[in-house]
Amino acid sequence: MSLTKKNSGWISLLFFIGALSACVPLAVYAYLGTFSRYLADDYCASTYLYTSQNIVEATLRAYSLWGNSYSRLMFSQLIELGGVDGIRVMAGVELAIWATLLTWMFVALGKLLQIHVPKVGYVWLACMAIALSLYQTSALYQVLFWRTGLIPYSLPLLWFIGIAAFFIRYVEKPYEKSRAVWFGIVFTVLIFFAGGLSETTSGMLVGIMFVAVALAWWTKRLHQRRDVLTFLVAGLITAIVAISITAASPGTSNRLGRIMRQEPIYNPIELGGQVILYTSQFLLETTKSYPTLIVVALAVSFGVVFLALGTSQKDGAFIQASYLRMALIVIPVAIFIVIGFSYAPSAFVRTFPAARARYASHFVFMLGLMIEGGVLGMLASQARSIVNEKWVQVAVALLLVALIVHPIRATPNVYALHYGYQTFAQQWDERDALIRQAVANGETDLVVVQLDAPGGIGEYKNNPKDWINRCVARFYGLNSIIAP
């Protein structure tokens, strides 16, 4: 037995330190979230909730007039229960749940595939996947600190991960009819609500389910579970229904009527070509812009899996090498398909996705790279003549030590954002207090100071008839409000 096998506790300690380092930037992001405030569409969503008898009525009104995401207001309502405090804690709560669910998914997948990795290693991978994707986006404030952006562009990822973990746990156990019935109902309901958060992530969900169905059908001789394929097909149909409801919204027609300068692409061949073009452009630009992050994603997952399997009593050979080599080809194809489906709504209206709409693609790309790195680690761990060499294990351990430093080095740049965010939050609080005092004094038409919102998000200005101004006025119970 090698030296590292005798000291497997040292490996767990290394993974623990790595997990802590990856959690540091996430903790800073959570801190930055305390400077979040109501902005732009937030006021409109809140007024829909305030002026409706219940959440169903609010959702139907929004669906008919402007919004097309039938699940979004339910989460707005949940955050709204805390008022401004709900806005302030939403990023931190999301990050905590996100890391937990992703860890759960990794653990469940590891059990299914009989991969023996310490749970703390999965925590490291989960936190790194989230942090690496957040480093890449140019729309950080919009997808994490703005309620109207967080709910449709980053929150759905939590749903997808949770659904995946839930499904893997089901597959892990033998088939039972009673269990299958309740699982099928819950699984379908979860997919339906996940598909109602935005057209971008709804398209991604269709892509995920399409890939899942294809893989389940392709590998059916390995698992011999008809119920697995049945549930996935039902999930795909549900995801298609969800995006169809989104597309059929009167709110969608209203928005497209204002922003479209050309006819949408109805030709499926032309649409497919545009999707391939946009997806290829995204992957090429991301690879050119963030080569270091790509290497980190591959290296950390490779190192964790290789070291865990190489220093355990198991030989890591449960999955045949031929299947693992095939997975190395399938994973990039799956990533391309999933991202492509998420870009289909934008391609339909001939527009390259905005930065906030591309965020889910960044996360899928990083997650896919980590899975790819894990597969490489499994392949390498099966070469026992190499694994048993002490210098190989030490080299991989040193690689992981170097990777521990990466999140720590990046954290100061993340923390530096707090200067602008904090200034805006203080100014917003002061203006909010003045407005509420004026309303309490019986004033109905106000002129207040204009602020510059972070993240390129719109602010109300000098036109009382502008949609943001009107939403703000209704939010505070005013006739009009302007900010020259």
Record keyword descriptors for this entry:
484 residues; mainly alpha; 2 domains; two-stranded parallel ribbon; 23 helices
Task: Outline the structure in words.
There is one protein chain. The protein is an all-alpha fold and 484 residues long. It folds into two domains: 3-33 and 66-416, no CATH class; 425-482, no CATH class. Helices cover 77% and strands 1% of the residues. The protein contains 23 helices and two strands. It has helices spanning 3-6, 8-33, 41-50, 55-65, 72-80, 83-113, 119-136, 140-145, 147-153, 155-172, 177-194, 199-218, 220-223, 226-247, 250-259, 268-289, 291-310, 321-348, 355-381, 384-387, 390-415, 418-440, 467-476, and strands at residues 445-447, 480-482. The protein has a two-stranded parallel ribbon. Strand 1 (445-447), helix 23 (467-476) and strand 2 form a beta-alpha-beta unit. The model is unreliable at 1-7 (pLDDT under 50).
